[in-house]
Design a protein that fits this description.
Blueprint lengths: L8 H10 L3 E6 L2 E6 L4 H43 L28 H51 L12 E4 L12 E7 L4 E6 L5 E5 L3 E3 L7 E4 L8 E8 L4 E6 L8 E6 L3 E3 L2
Antiparallel strand pairs: 1-2, 3-4, 3-7, 4-5, 5-6, 8-9, 8-12, 9-10, 10-11
Helix pairs in contact: 2-3
């Protein structure tokens, strides 16, 4: 410390905390220091991860609310169908009488006969209307069920397409080192991922020098080869599949790929973001 402006290491540690360069905490075992990485690339990667997590949560909330709304509509429709509707029986004319012939003979003549015929016709019309209403209600209920099921299937498909993982590194792909913490010797250099230490840490081998480094995925980015070259899809709906790069869309930062592995071999997919595929080693 003789060559610095601080008299003790403790003063230097406190200064690091005040300047916001490190997280400083005094513990029973001594001072605890954690470096705060303010590299723009690291901050950008962290923001992207936060956006992805928020998007996944929003999709789940929308799906839950949609299903809850469909259940509520189904319950309301069922309750409405179960409620009986009562109507008042009215006569057209007070002087008319209804006569029934229980013995099978002829009924009384005059108004009584006309009233019997009128009642019979009214009964037939009521039964016909009731059947039509029941048929219409059943059709409406069936259409509502099919519509709700179609909407749920469509929403699940959209959710499946938007499924993403917060880790994308995998062996045998070409990546680029984007951290400056290792110096200019390794910055922007291409390497091949040889093995994974965990979901977010990989051992890479530099293509130029052959040096091996252990890096976090936030210090790496995907490499886009020339059209016609083989790539590996590292994120999204087609994660893990090999493909051929057909072309790129510079305006949308995406590419057109032809799947070249598995049951979907030969399928052409468009709109794959740059960060979702990388050159195959």
């Amino acid at each position: 410390m003789n060559s610095t402006q601080w008299e003790t290491l403790t003063d230097f540690t406190k200064w690091l905390g005040r300047e916001g360069l490190c997280k400083v905490d005094e513990t029973p075992k001594g001072w605890y220091i954690q470096y705060i990485d303010r590299d723009p690339e690291t901050i950008r990667r962290q923001e992207e991860l936060e956006k992805k997590k928020k998007q996944d949560l929003d999709d789940e909330e929308r799906s839950a609310k949609f299903i809850e709304e469909q259940v509520r509509r189904g319950r309301e429709g069922k309750e409405a169908e179960e409620e009986p509707v009562f109507t008042e029986l009215k006569r057209e004319k007070e002087e008319e009488k209804v006569a029934f012939n229980l013995a099978g003979g002829s009924s009384s003549v005059g108004p009584a006969k006309a009233s019997t015929s009128l009642a019979s016709n009214a009964l037939k019309i009521a039964v016909s209307v009731k059947r039509k209403d029941a048929s219409h209600t059943a059709d409406s209920k069936e259409k509502r069920k099919k519509s709700a099921l179609a909407e749920i299937i469509e929403m699940e498909e959209k959710k499946k397409k938007s499924v993403r993982s917060d880790n994308w590194i995998r062996p045998d792909i070409v990546v680029k080192v984007i951290t400056k913490r290792l110096g200019e010797k390794y910055y922007k250099k291409k390497a091949v991922i040889r093995e994974l230490q965990d979901k977010y840490t990989a051992v890479v081998k530099l293509i130029d020098s052959g040096d091996k480094l252990k890096l976090d995925q936030s210090h790496l980015e995907t490499v886009i080869p020339a059209p016609g070259k083989r790539v590996v899809i590292v994120n999204g709906q087609y994660r893990g599949m090999e493909a051929i790069l057909e072309g790129i869309n510079e305006k949308n930062f995406s590419a057109q790929l032809t799947i070249d592995s598995g049951a979907m071999k030969g399928k052409i997919v468009e709109g794959i973001p740059y960060e979702d595929f990388s050159k195959q080693a």
